[in-house]
Structures are given as structure tokens and as C-alpha cells.
Amino acid sequence: MLILSFTLILLLGAYLAGLTGALTGLGGGVVIIPLLTLVFHIDMRYAIGAALVSSIATSSGSASAYVREGITNIRVGMFLEIATTIGAVTGAMIAVYTPVNLVAIIFGLTLIFSAAMTLRKKNEHAETEGSPLAAKLKLNGSYPTPSGVVHYNLRNVGGGFSIMTLAGILSGLLGIGSGALKVLAMDTAMRIPFRVSTTTSNFMVGVTAAASAVVYLQRGYIDPAIAMPVIIGVLAGAFTGTKLLMRLNPKKLRLIFSIAITLVALQMIYNGLQHKF
Amino acid sequence: MKLSDTKINDRGIEIFIGRFLRWGVLSSCAVAIAGGILYLVNHGMEVMPDYTVFHGEDAGYTSLPGIIKGLETGSAKEVIQAGVIILLATPILRIFLSLISFILEKDRLYVFITAIVLCIILGSMFGGLKI
Questions:
Q1: Is A207 within 8 Å of B87 when comparing Cβ atoms?
Q2: Which of A184, B15, B97, B106 has the least CB density, counted as fewest CB within 10 Å?
Q3: pLDDT tens sequence across A99-122
Q4: What are the TM regions of this chain, as residue ranges (chain A) (predicted)?
């Protein structure tokens, strides 16, 4: 295949990844890794490098809008980034000693978990009683809604912190943003309202991914010829996706996409077990 | 970006960080497009390299001095990689900005927390984790 056609196909794939990512909340890496490994048979390590680049692009791109709206809780993000960056660097170090086929299997399992997480019921409830630790760390916050400002408090800071460390490890090992786990930590464990936890998770993905990406860049995982169409395509797709999001209800789309992702995940696990990577 | 005439508070900082993230992403994308066009003009009609076996990238693409050296010779791949570096630098510089803003707010606890995050990232950059 010619470099030109490879670049154009990848550009289109990255565009679709950015688009579905913005509409469903699943990050770009979820589409990029299977596209590169299952369709192009590119080595998993190049795919991880490309996925990290796409995670940072989508995170910074969409976080810029949410932060300005004042929904993101910057203090919660910064505090939990201690956990995710330690995890991410650890994950990037573990990756050297992990066989590629095992990485593919872990990736498949994470995909299935993420797909299930996008379909579950969301916590919209603002907690009135937080834990003393949350108050001490100044994590409680507020966000604007059409019906006025909502104040919320946090619980279970320790539990959230531990899940975040795991999210960081997976993100460093697989190159994905692991947004689903981040939301689980904030939404389910710490009881942060859904809108705040998704936007704060998005805000954190860039820093988490950058922590492991510097390791991967130095190891030669990031190929410029693959990274170039991925950056451009994912950003353009995410931009279109956020515009579209205001006009359509993504509920059905989320279901269809979750089923598709699960099938892809099973294929990844199967190939991993067959040692095809 | 007029930070000076805005009162230093969480809201003003949020708007500033939001703008900063957007500029980082857009400039990285612009550099990647420029490098991409150059790359396709020079190599578009060549057969795609074999990515099925991992061999790792050359030093020219994996270190800052290597990339800067390549930029001087006008190599397309190094231009793209410079775009990747801008993309990676955006969230890291964002932490620097947060650190400065917490210092201005005199929020000692968060100056400390932000400094920890920064140390972890700088440690992974310079800590010889190349293995």
C-alpha cells in the first residue's frame, strides 16, 4: 500500500474515532488501537503510541470548552492527578515486561468494561453531606445549571484515589484515557454529580496520558507517519462531534457503539489468546 | 490573554486555562498539518513502511535535540514530531499554569499538591525511564 492511501484511510478512521468519542464519551484510543492492529496488522506498540497521542488531543480539545463553562472541578482533578500520574508512569514501566498478547487481552477486557459503563444509569444527585477529608482538601464544589448553581460534597476520597491509581496504570499500559474507570471513581465512589465527573475526567486524561507518553516517546513508540493523521483526524472528528451533540440524542448511538466495541473487544481477546499480535 | 486586569480567582483561572488548552491543541495540529503535507509531497507515492514488526523509532524522533536537529534540515517527520511535542507539552504546561495560579491565590495546600504532580511528570521525563 502507498503511504498516501495509508495516511488517508487512517485520517478517516481517526476522524470517526474522534466523532464517536465525542458523541459516546469513549475516548479515541478505543477505536484507534483495534483499527491499527486488527485492520492494518500494525504492531501493538505503535498502536499504543498513536492512542496516547489521540487521548491527549481529545482531552485537551474538549476540556478547553468545559473548563470555560465552569463545570470542571480543577481541585478534584489536580488532587486525583497525583494518583493517575503515579499509575501512568508505573503502567508505562510495567509495559516493557508485559507480553504484547497479554496487553491485547487486558485491552479487550477494559473495552468491554468501558462499553458497559457508558450504558449504566448516571448519578445526578448532588451529595449534601461530604466526608471531613473532602472538606479538608477543599474538594467540594459547585457548578452552573439552567436552574441555578448546584453545590455538591464528596465522600470516600480514599476509595476514589485507589480506583484512580488503577485507572492510571491501565492508561499507561494501554495508551487509552481510561475515562470509564475515572468516572467510576468520581461518580460511584466519591458521589460527584455526573456532569462534573465526566468533564473533570476529561480534563485529567491529558495529564495522565502525557505522563506516560513522554516515556513512550523516548522508547520510540510514537511514529510520526502514524501520529500525524491521528492528531488531525481525531481533532476534526471531536470538533464535529461536539457540534452534533447539541442536535441529536446519543442514547441509541451509545447502545449501537457499545455492542460494536464489545465485538471488537472479543476479537482482540481471541487474537491475544491465539498469540496473533 | 489579559490575566492582569482580571481578578485572580478560580473563575478567571478557568477561562485562562481553557484558552491555553485550545491554543496548545490548535498549534500542535497546525504544525502536524504542515509536516504532513511536506511528508506526503516527498514520500506519498512510496510504499508504506512495514509496521507489523516493532523496531522503535530513531533517535531523531525520540529526543528533543534530535527533533530540533531534524527541523534545521527541514525533514518532514521531525516537523510532525515537533507537533507531537507541542501536544505533549500542552497538559504539562497546564500544570505549571495551575501551580502559578495557586501561588497567586496563596493556596498552600494546592501549591503542594500541584508540585507533587509536576515532580512525578518531570521525574518520568528526566528519570531515565527509557529502559
A1: no
A2: B106
A3: 999 999 999 999 999 988 888 877
A4: 102-119, 161-181, 226-246, 253-270
B121 and A2 in contact by Cβ < 8 A? no
**Mean pLDDT value across chain A:** 90
List CB contacts (< 8 A) between A218 and chain B: 62-63, 129-130
pLDDT at B1 over 60: no
Measured between beta carbons, which residues in chain A are less than 8 angstroms from residue B62?
Answer: 217-220, 222
Lookup: cell for A75:
481541585
Give which of A93, A51, A42, A12 is closest to A209, Cα–Cα. A51
Convert B49-73 to b/e letters by CB count within 10 Å (16 or more is b).
Answer: eebeebeebeebbbeeebbeebeee
Contact A232, B77 (CB under 8 A): no
Mutate to test the interface with A, among B45, B87, B107, B109 (most CBs of A within 10 A): B87
Write down the ipTM of this complex.
0.90
Give the whole-angstrom CA distance, residue B2 versus residue B16.
9
More confident residue, A94 or B74: A94
The structure's pTM equals 0.89
Of the partner residues A2, A46, A232, the one whose CB lies closest to the CB of residue B32: A232
How many CB pairs lie under 8 A apart between chains A and B?
Answer: 208
Question: How many CA atoms are closer than 13 Å to the CA of A171, on its beta-carbon side?
Answer: 38
Residues of B in contact with A63 (CB under 8 A): 18, 21
Q: Bridge-partner residues for A143, per DSSP?
A: A150
Distance CA A52, CA A255 (A): 25
How far apart are alpha carbons A198 and A73 in whole angstroms?
10
- In this predicted structure, the answer to whether residue A230 has a pLDDT above a threshold of 60 is yes
DSSP assignment of chain B equals ---TTS--SHHHHHHHHHHHHHHHHHHHHHHHHHHHHHHHHHHTTSBPP--SS-----HHHHSHHHHHHHHHTT-HHHHHHHHHHHHHHHHHHHHHHHHHHHHHTT-HHHHHHHHHHHHHHHHHHHS-TT-
Contact: B88, A210; criterion CB under 8 Å = yes
